[in-house]
Amino acid sequence: MIERWFKVHELGSTFRTELLGGTTTFITMAYILVVNPAILSFAGIPSGPSTVATILSAVFGSLLMGLYANRPIAVAPYMGENAFIAFGLAAMGIGWQQRLGAVFVSGAGFVIITSLGIRSWLANSISSSMKHSFAVGIGLFLAFIGLYETGIVTSFVTGMPAKLLLTPNTDLIRTPDAPVKIGNLRDPQVLLAIFGFLVIVALLHRRVRGAILLGIVVTAVAGYALGFGHAPHGVMAMPFVGDYDLRAIAFKLDIAGVLRLGFLPILLTLFLMGFLDTLGTLVGLGAAAGMVDEKGNFDKIERPMMVDALTCMFSGLVGTSTSGAYIESATGIREGARTGLAAVTTAALFAASLFFIPLIEPLQNLRFAYGPALIAVGVLMLGSVKKIRFDDLTELVPAFVTIIMMLFTYNIANGLTAGLVVYPVIKLASGRYRELNWGAVTLGFLCLIYYIFGLPH
């Protein structure tokens, strides 16, 4: 029955590979169980219930992705969008109930345009070079996250006295002389991360099954042996009661309050960020897994897009931020996962974590263990750069803009929007307007609106 549903062997995989891939994806993205509630707490959403809501969204989305779309892609609350919800709207005096209402409404918009086929039409209107630039940009973005999380690369201001960070005669922080610098290579945890990366690379080169997962485990064990990490404060805790009572935030969203003209920039920003994050992630992961055709089109993309849309609405209802396809799924795909059974496995592990929140919390803080996996996957995703047309500047320049803006603004949506705006402009300026289609023009126009009337960050 499982074979008939997921077509595991037909798609060139095995049950063991799918379970391993789903487990690897879970481990590399389990940090959201701590990070997402911590970020949303700045919006006034209590951390305990927020943790439960985060898990429920991941279970709902990943399970639906596996059973309905049959893709090895996990779904959970996005990291960029949660920062927008928590910090980007802070100066507007908007309560968290309205912020959750905006998440729900943007998800409803996704459902409508997906049902009408508009979303897949727009996705398939993007050139092959641009789609492969999404994979390259996301790969470099993943690598940068891993480098920063592990401390191999750190902020330029790290270790500087506070008074040197201020603009003279003001209390405002000045622009640093450089954004980042090399980390402290004498820090044992940084050295552990480098060790973990080398272990993963060596195992990958030898084509060892579960190389990424094994690398994470080996590095974590080495870290514990050296005294890093702390013992859990408990083993189990019942969800939905006490500190984890979901009633504090579930169904408390304010939908009517966001359906007014003043909220249009917020809705537009959430809508485009979610749309483009999912599009870029799906295409990037599809390219990495061989799930795209010769034109770079993702087969039956409307199914994972519908999953993304429904999960976004679900997230607003239970009390968390915009959800969508997760780039960390690339770790499971790299392990060979090709079907929805991997996503179901990830969903099952998230569901189990509901009862072990105190136990898993220390593991989520071992950045030196999971960070190297992100760097390794970023390296592996760079292969898509070979499919960008370097001999055609009208294709190369938008792809280049996409990659550098994604990486250097630390935001996937910024890279996608910038590249999609530049693409039709370059084609028109070069007199090659016949190569444009209405989908590319429409996307470029929508992305331009995002920069003019939205709230880019």
Structure write-up:
With 457 residues, the protein is an all-alpha fold. The protein has one domain. The protein is 61% helix and 3% strand. It contains 19 helices and four strands. It has helices spanning 2-6, 15-29, 32-40, 47-69, 79-88, 96-115, 118-124, 128-150, 188-205, 211-225, 264-289, 302-318, 329-334, 340-353, 357-364, 367-381, 393-408, 412-429, 438-453, and strands spanning 75-77, 153-155, 180-182, 323-325. A two-stranded antiparallel sheet has the order 1-4. The longest helix has 26 residues, at 264-289. It is globular, with a radius of gyration of 21 Å. It starts with a helix and ends with a helix.
Features:
457 residues, mainly alpha, two-stranded antiparallel ribbon
Give me the count of strands: 4
* Total helical elements: 19
The helix fraction, in percent, is 55-70%
The description of the largest β-sheet is: 2 strands, antiparallel
Estimated structural class: mainly alpha
Cross-sheet strand order for the largest sheet:
1-4
Query: What is the domain tally?
Result: 1
Oligomeric organization of the protein chains: single chain
User: Rg, please?
Assistant: 21 Å
Q: Which series of helices and strands comes N to C?
A: HHHHEHHHHEEHHHHEHHHHHHH
